[in-house]
Structure formats: C-alpha cells, structure tokens
Design goal:
Blueprint (H helix, E strand, L loop, with lengths): L4 H14 L3 H14 L6 H6 L2 H8 L5 H14 L3 H9 L3 H6 L6 H14 L5 H4 L2 H11 L4 H14 L2 H11 L12
Length: 182
C-alpha cells in the first residue's frame, strides 16, 4: 500500500527523531528540506512541526545538519503562515547566528531567509545594525554569489541611513562576523 504525502513526511520526521546515525539524520533532514520546497507540503510540514525541527537544528554542532535546516527554513518562509510562525517563534535570532557559519550554503540560505522574513514589523530584527554590518562585509567578498546577495540585501531591505551607520561603525571595530569558507 502506498503511503500518502502526510504519512510519508511523518515517517521522515519519526526516522529523524529515532535514528542515532549522524549520516541518516543528515539524509532525512536533507529530504525534509527538499520537500519544504513544494507548497503542497507546507500544511503537512506545519502540522508535523517541521518548522520547529528546523529551528531547533540550527543550534546543532553538525554543519551539514545546520545547512539542511537553514535550507528548509529558506524554502518554507515564502509562505505567509510559515513566515508568521518563524517570526512568532523568535526564529530570526538563530537565523542571524547562521550568518557566521563557515558553510557558504548555510550563509546564502540565511541571507535569503532574512530577506523573505522582512516585513514592516520584523524589519527592526532582520536589518539590525549587526546584520547590516555583516552584509557590508559580505558585499566585499570575492565570492560573487555572496557579494551579489549581500548587495541586494543592502539595497532592497536597508535604508541608506542604516547602511551609513553600519559603515561608520565598521570603521571603528576590529572584529566582525567572519566570511564563510569557499
């Protein structure tokens, strides 16, 4: 008998929670992140509390798990209900923390997710001064993907005043968020 969509996603969540194998956890989380790309799965993933699973996984030590969780959140946050859930669950802070990841894909997903989560209400969080300073650093990166995305963030989500304030502060600080490894 073929499993329905909800049952299949439930089996993945159960496997993620039950397995002790790091490789199996990574594979299952990667699958869940891929399923998060399809709007037909949004309701099921909310029902199965996969948004919480992704948010909780952002604090894991495994770079691969964090990458897949961040990618899953990035895929889910285009949906209005998912966006509101992430914002209400105080998800912006752990996403901002992912900006310091050495993993390029994690950083790219974090920047994109912050863009998707920006609303008039959340903008004070998503464009807080440390985030703008970080985007200024990223905009200078030799990595064109990161540089272009950070420049877009600065131009489309930040005010000129925020950018100038971050530039002024950056001149006076020696330590910033490190750039991801290529």
């Amino acid at each position: 008998m073929e499993l329905g969509r909800l049952e299949y996603l439930q089996a993945l969540v159960t496997e993620f929670q039950a397995t002790d194998s790091p490789d199996a956890k990574e594979q299952v989380l990667a699958n869940l992140a891929n399923f998060a790309y399809d709007p037909q799965n949004y309701e099921h993933l909310r029902r199965l509390q996969v948004l919480d699973l992704f948010l909780d996984t952002l604090s894991e030590d495994s770079e691969a798990l964090v990458e897949f969780a961040m990618g899953g959140l990035c895929n889910l946050c285009l949906d209005r209900a998912n966006k509101e859930y992430i914002l209400e669950a105080n998800g912006v802070e752990p996403i901002i923390n992912c900006l310091s990841s050495p993993n390029e894909e994690t950083v790219m997903s974090a920047v994109t997710t912050l863009m998707y989560l920006s609303t008039p209400r959340s903008r004070t969080q998503t464009t807080a001064l440390p985030v703008v300073e970080c985007m200024l650093r990223f905009s200078l990166s030799a990595n064109r993907r990161l540089s272009n995305l950070a420049t877009l963030f600065l131009e489309d989500y930040c005010t000129p005043l925020q950018v100038e304030e971050a530039r002024t502060l950056s001149k006076h600080t020696a330590v910033g968020i490190p750039l991801p490894k290529d």
